[in-house]
TrEMBL record, chain A:
The lineage of its organism: Bacteria, Pseudomonadati, Pseudomonadota, Betaproteobacteria, Burkholderiales. PANTHER family: ABC TRANSPORTER PERMEASE, ABC TRANSPORTER PERMEASE PROTEIN NOSY-RELATED. It comes from Piscinibacter gummiphilus. It comes from the Bacteria. InterPro entries: DUF3526 (IPR021913). Coiled coil: none annotated. GO terms for cellular component: plasma membrane. GO terms for molecular function: ABC-type transporter activity. Pfam families: ABC2_membrane_2 (PF12679), DUF3526 (PF12040). This is ABC transporter permease.
UniProtKB/TrEMBL annotation, chain B:
It comes from Piscinibacter gummiphilus. InterPro entries: DUF3526. This is ABC transporter permease. It holds the Pfam family DUF3526.
């Protein structure tokens, strides 16, 4: 047996005898299992509730009676954001964004009924998910179990003996790291099993699930290497513990909050209030479709008449009111898209500022990566909102075209009395969200995590060289 | 007094302790500065929006008054409502980052408008704010643990324990004095920035007192616990481990478990259900005979029964009647939805009687008016204002009164909800009780320190 493995075995033997360490390990493993079940259960419940609501509103839309198409434009449609399978591992922003979006004509509504507005402050303490256990609690256990690994040998004088017996410092340090790595593997195992189960039931999530497992393995590896390095470098066990606890506090508790805070202070977002008013102003500047003398819509009328080669709107083969509706919707939707894109880009700039804090804490990179891969980050939410907006536009224009083509200008007296057959809206409102499978942004976060791992490994190597010199 | 000064001199010679106190003071100051900044930004937003809203109203008056028709004005005119942050909001920013602090409503069906969200970056909100509540709940205990865990074991390690125990005034009184001094300095490092912030923001004395009491309770709790565990057998490292584990369980784990239990035990699905039901009620009305709609409306609003019958074709009073009926149709669901949220809030407060972190959060956020209760109060204020808007417009609609410029100017204005939060006495008392128990445990353990224990 190599000295490295012998040292690791010896370390494990010690850990087994330490009731506190074993208790902590068992507790953490049980907690991960509980977290996996709870998070999976909550995801299933959310997915079922949203699917139920979706089919309910789809059916309600289809069974609306004969109506004027413009009434259907105002009746609108609801879409529900179904959580992806990996949201059971890391729900990300799901509780903070709404998941219900009301789509209607001339307006862009916000997603609402996010959990954060429906819950007491407890949500701010975190959600019980495998990601929370691995990111926040697992490093603490590794610190408690591993901080004394090398320092203990030094303080009790066995270090000298070991080295005198021909164990090379690198072997000793590698053995201790291996022992702690074994604990990390045990801690990681339940989450990996949960991820494997998700990948088994939804095979297209296999790749992302593997990336999540690897990323969290890298995170625990960072701690294993860092803890061993601190234990090798610092002279006394209590110093190691205090330094590591301080590092944990800074990495896990302080920096992940400070980064967003400073990004918020630097880049503010406009309120909906302002955006709504700005859009209304821009629209008023373009023209008023109800005003017969409005220059923009007079020009539009000329164009339409020219296109169909007639002199009066009454002679058009299509209903002019429907065409005006389509033109108005086109104009408003362009503005909605412009303002929404601006707001999302500003939010992404905020996140780019937050990303800089990954140089202070790898947790920042890990969280971003975890949410991006689980499909629960801002980017996926943006995809949902933008796809829903495109769907809204297509639906409203479909209904406006029905008004243009199924009703004549002369018959289209009022939206209460002129109706078309309800068969026209069957199936028109069905919406399917296509998440972005590209795991955008995950690569750079993974790079940052690897850099941390490499940097701390370098520290560990230097520390183990020092160990050799100091005992010589 | 002399002994305290002596202890202070000893502490002053420990660079790590001094650095920890300074660091805590700086973190608390940073949290206060960021909190004040955020509140100032919210006020700036509100005054910017007030100007914008006034301009928008004027523009509306120009375009919508042409037909002197109240229905057109009521349909198109958005009215601003706002929820200004309290003077204590900087200590605990709470839900104000995710819930709207401004909302525009018009006289149409309310429930479709009331739940509108605000534009915010969900990834930033997910991280949570760096405010005083955060420093007090998450960071202060860690600093207390760092400063207090080796009050006894440090002396033992240094070989001074036997000497100290044999001196007059040694034993319990010595440890209590030492721990008390450190805890008092932690308390000062925490509250001095808040007091400065309170002066800047003009916080009322009652709110200041609440913050001081909550801080004191938290410091005493963690100080007492640190002394209790730190006086037990074992080395400083074991004590630090045990304390840190306790902190992680009380502050991170149990609240998180409780949240999982609460969202399962008290589901809140009615929000979506009420939106869906209301839409069916409102839009279904277009297909019902208008006379039936008016009959149903008159049942709850008999005062308009005697007015002119509906003419052929469209009439605004019919339109607004079915909008109101849409809201009345879902009144039960609204009540159930709010009851669900109130239940969650109540259980959280009860949990705070056991978990000091949750208790401190609950107290600070209640005092700051930034919790779920405050959000519901804002919604109530918007609802009351909306009813006022309806009452204002109905005479014009039902009695066919022409709507002129003077009428436009006379439209009701919103008054924000009263910020006066009641002192959260029950939660504070519970916090005080937990703190007293921890202090008692600490004092008892400090009296039992013996020279022979140790590693």
């Amino acid at each position: 047996m190599s000295p490295v493995r012998r040292i690791a075995f010896e370390e494990w033997r010690l850990m087994r005898r330490d009731r506190v360490a074993m208790g902590g390990l068992v507790l953490l493993v049980l907690l991960t299992v509980a977290a996996a079940f709870t998070a999976w259960d909550q995801r299933q419940a959310a997915a079922a509730a949203r699917a139920l609501h979706q089919s309910q509103v789809d059916q309600e839309f289809d069974t609306q009676p004969d109506r004027h198409p413009h009434r259907m434009v105002h009746y609108g449609h609801f879409v529900f954001r179904a959580p992806g399978a990996l949201a059971a591992f890391d729900p990300g922003v799901d509780a903070f964004t709404g998941h219900t979006l009301f789509l209607e004509g001339h307006r862009q509504n916000s997603a609402n009924f996010g959990d954060v507005r429906q819950s007491s402050l407890l949500l701010r303490f975190g959600q019980l998910t495998p990601a929370f256990v691995l990111q926040v609690l697992a490093p603490l256990l590794l610190i408690f179990v591993g901080h004394a690994a090398v320092a203990r040998e030094r303080e009790s004088g066995t270090l000298r003996v070991l080295l005198a017996q021909g164990v090379r410092p690198a072997q000793l340090v590698a053995g201790k790291a291996l022992a702690l790595g074994g604990v990390a593997v045990l801690v990681l195992a339940p989450a990996v099993i949960a991820l494997a189960a998700i990948a088994w039931t939804t095979p297209e999530q296999g790749g992302p699930a593997a990336v999540l497992a690897l990323a969290h393995a890298a995170w625990l590896a960072i701690w294993v290497v860092g803890i061993t390095a601190a234990s090798t470098w610092l002279p006394r066990g209590r110093d190691v513990l205090l330094v590591l606890l301080a590092a944990w506090t800074a990495w896990v508790v302080v920096v992940p909050r400070l980064g967003p805070e400073l990004a918020l202070a630097r880049t503010a977002l406009p309120t909906r209030f302002e955006t709504d008013i700005a859009i209304a102003r821009d629209l008023a500047a373009i023209g008023d479709s109800h005003n017969p003398d409005d220059p923009y819509f007079a020009g539009f009328r000329r164009q339409v008449l020219a296109r169909y080669g007639v002199a009066r709107i009454e002679d058009l083969p299509v209903n002019y009111k429907g065409l005006v509706g389509m033109e108005g919707e086109r104009l408003t939707s362009e503005l909605f898209a412009r303002y929404a894109t601006e707001a999302f880009e500003r939010q992404e700039r905020q996140l780019a500022q937050v990303d800089q804090f990954a140089w202070l804490s790898p947790m920042v990179a890990l969280r971003r990566l975890s949410m991006a891969v689980a499909g629960t980050d801002l980017w996926q939410y943006r995809r949902f909102v933008e796809q829903a907006e495109r769907h809204r536009y297509a639906l409203v224009q479909h209904l406006n075209r029905l008004q243009a083509e199924q009703l004549t200008f002369r018959d289209d007296k009022s939206s209460r009395d002129s109706r078309i057959a309800s068969t026209h809206w069957h199936g028109a409102a069905d919406f399917h969200f296509e998440p972005d499978p590209s795991m955008r942004g995950a690569a750079s976060a993974a790079g940052t995590l690897l850099l941390w791992l490499v940097a701390l490994s370098a520290v560990l190597i230097v520390a183990s060289n020092r160990l050799g010199k100091e005992t010589r | 007094m002399n002994t305290i000064l002596h202890e202070a001199r000893l502490l002053w010679r420990s660079p790590v302790s001094v650095a920890a106190l300074v660091a805590l003071f700086l973190l608390s100051s940073l949290a206060v500065v960021l909190g004040l900044r955020e509140v100032a930004a919210q006020h700036a937003t509100l005054s910017r929006l007030a100007v914008l809203q006034a301009q928008d109203l004027q523009a509306q008056a120009r375009t919508r008054l042409a037909r002197q028709d109240a229905g057109t004005v009521a349909y198109y005119t958005f009215h601003g409502t706002w929820d200004p942050p309290s003077t204590a909001a900087f200590t605990a920013l709470g839900l104000r980052d995710a819930a709207p602090g401004v909302l525009r409503v018009r006289a149409l069906a309310l429930q479709a408008q009331l739940h509108e969200g605000e534009t915010f970056n969900p990834e930033l909100v997910l991280a949570g704010r760096f405010d005083y509540a955060f420093v007090l709940v998450y960071l202060a205990p860690l600093f207390l643990i760092a400063l207090l865990h080796d009050v006894v074991s440090g002396e033992r390690r240094a070989g001074r324990l036997a000497t100290l125990m044999s001196l007059p005034g040694g034993g319990r009184r010595l440890w209590m004095r030492r721990a008390g001094l450190r805890a008092a300095l932690v308390f000062l490092a925490l509250v001095l920035p808040v007091l400065a912030g309170a002066v800047v923001s003009g916080m009322p004395m009652a709110a200041v007192a609440t913050v001081l009491l909550a801080t004191a309770a938290s410091v005493v709790f963690w100080g007492g616990l640190s002394l209790a565990i730190g006086s037990a057998r074992g080395s400083a490292a074991v004590h630090a481990t045990a304390l840190m584990g306790t902190w992680a369980v009380l502050t991170l784990l149990l609240p998180t478990l409780a949240n999982a239990a609460l969202s399962r035990g008290v589901p809140v699905h009615q929000g979506v259900a009420l939106m869906l039901a209301q839409r069916q009620a409102v839009h279904g009305a277009w297909d019902l005979p208008p006379g039936d709609t008016m009959d149903r409306f008159f049942r709850t609003h008999p005062e308009w029964r005697g007015t002119a019958p509906l003419p052929e074709g469209f009439h605004w009073k019919w339109y607004f009647a079915f909008q109101q009926l849409g809201d009345e149709h879902v009144a039960d669901r609204v009540a159930a939805y709010r009851a669900g949220m109130a239940t969650r809030q109540r259980w959280t407060e009860r949990l705070g009687w056991l978990l000091p972190g949750v208790g401190v959060q609950a107290v600070l956020h209640r005092q700051a008016g930034t919790d779920l209760t405050a959000q519901l109060a804002y919604q109530d204020a918007v609802t009351a204002y909306h009813s006022e808007l309806r009452r204002f417009f109905y005479p014009y609609l039902f009695e066919e009164v022409r709507f002129g410029e003077a009428d436009f100017a006379a439209q009701p204005r919103f008054t924000p909800p009263m910020a006066a939060a009641a002192m959260p006495w029950a939660s504070l008392a519970a916090l005080g009780l937990i703190a007293a128990v921890a202090a008692g445990l600490g004092a008892r353990a400090a009296g039992r320190v013996s020279v022979r224990d140790g590693t």
